[in-house]
Write a structure and sequence with these properties.
Layout: H1 2-16, E1 28-29, E2 33-37, H2 43-50, H3 53-56, H4 66-77, H5 80-83, E3 86-92, E4 98-106, E5 113-119, H6 128-143, E6 148-153, H7 158-166, E7 170-177, E8 180-188, H8 189-199
Antiparallel strand pairs: 1-2, 2-3, 3-4, 4-5, 6-8, 7-8
Length: 203
């Protein structure tokens, strides 16, 4: 009887504990962040972001149903195998808080691989997008063997363009991406490797 009670309590406790608080095997990590693949249990955090007009201003219309956000999680997770691309949850190591998402994706119009990111509004301005995106550039070049990674944004999205420049990406013009007129920035593997050496000359 005691065993049954403890087993029931333990299982119930695990169900109540947000899964993102139990970080066991992150896909990638940085000094401040864990980056792990998005899962269905991230729906509350994802919906909070994707229903926020401020967060979605330069992405798409805010979502109004959790089912839409869940479908998005499933859609951007289906290419981990075999392509090795998708989006990860950004988790702050210190607080274990969910901060947003970041990852690599294939642009349908050009077949180029882009790095994409979004951060919760109350976490803007802390460098999390740049830190996560830089780690994904490293993953793309070193693990996937990519020769180039791009990023796209609305011309008026100054914050996203600032992240791209901080990553060492160069402006490459305006084009049609995702059926929208967006600016494109890009960085080659050799340029990324040079920037890393400049930052860490003794490594």
């Amino acid at each position: 009887m005691a065993f049954f009670f403890l087993k029931h309590w333990f299982e119930s406790h695990l169900r109540r504990t947000p899964v993102y608080l139990k970080i066991k095997s992150p896909m990638l990590e940085t000094e401040r962040l864990f980056l792990r693949k998005l899962q269905d249990h991230d729906i509350e955090e994802i919906f909070d972001m994707r229903s926020d007009p401020s967060v979605m201003k330069y992405i798409r219309e805010p979502q109004t149903k959790k089912e839409e956000s869940l479908n998005w999680i499933k859609m951007i997770s289906k290419y981990w195998v075999p392509d090795g691309i998708g989006f990860c949850a950004i988790i702050e190591k210190e607080s274990k808080s969910f901060l947003g998402w970041c990852g690599l994706w294939r642009i349908p119009e050009t077949d180029e691989i882009e790095v994409g990111y979004a951060i919760k509004k109350d976490q803007w301005g802390k460098g999390f997008a740049t830190e996560a995106a830089e780690r994904f550039l490293k993953y793309g070049f070193e693990d996937l063997g990519l020769e180039k990674v791009v990023a796209v944004a609305f011309p008026q999205n100054k914050a996203s363009r600032s992240v791209m420049r901080k990553l060492g990406m160069e402006y490459a013009g305006i084009g049609n991406y995702y059926n929208k007129s967006l600016v494109k920035y890009e960085i080659a593997r050799s340029e990324f490797e040079s920037s890393i050496l400049d930052q860490h000359p003794d490594s």
